[in-house]
């Protein structure tokens, strides 16, 4: 379906970046704004009974993660809240308060939206407006053969309860890291994406957008979340999804940390197409062999 949307897109004046990246870029009155929209749906992105503050955090922060991937600063949100029939007045008010509080804390206050009640699951759809703040947005389409691939943080286990911390609900978007990368020319990546569907799904999007490049991932270098580390922890790292970390393609060596966040080199971009996963014992998995890993709607 995403490819179908992309085929309907044609270049338009005032829209330097359209469908296919983490955010669209539009020109308004001589200035550039970045825009993205993401929903969270009860039963899909969060379980029934999830605390309203966690629902709000995920709804706002997953949009902020898109801004981080472009190196932009979140500025404002527009929220459409569709309350399920089972959501009573008190729960609805707690959710709305939590959404406003979370957006305020993230620097992107709610400036409007809509509220409705329907027979389906409670759904929060957030549109984020972000500011490039003088920096050229980083696109996912400019990786180069020979680039090294880096990720922030750790991967996998996003839905595991770690003593009360559940990453896909409680994560902090890497906005500060994204800004640091675009504000220092020596650190700026050629391409970047946020890992929402898992490395196995999101890296191919960068490679395809960059002209059909390939990549080699060194599985023994993946920073795996400790709670799922083990013999096949790498499968969780590339396939669980909802990491909301940054994957970047870089021409120069990167520091071990940026703004206190760990960076790990996990592989490289190559000229020939195809994605290969290399083990430490000489084995190699192809993209096709691991095609079942990563998040895909309707599967």
UniProtKB/TrEMBL annotation:
Mg(2+) 5 binds at residue 197. Substrate binds at residues 45, 242, 295. It catalyses: thiamine phosphate + ATP = thiamine diphosphate + ADP. The keyword Magnesium applies. Mg(2+) 3 binds at residues 22, 66, 194. One of its GO terms (biological process) is thiamine diphosphate biosynthetic process. Keywords: ATP-binding, Kinase, Magnesium, Metal-binding, Nucleotide-binding, Thiamine biosynthesis, Transferase. Mg(2+) 2 binds at residues 38, 66. HAMAP family: TMP_kinase. This is Thiamine-monophosphate kinase. The lineage of its organism: Bacteria, Pseudomonadati, Planctomycetota, Phycisphaerae, Phycisphaerales. The gene is thiL.
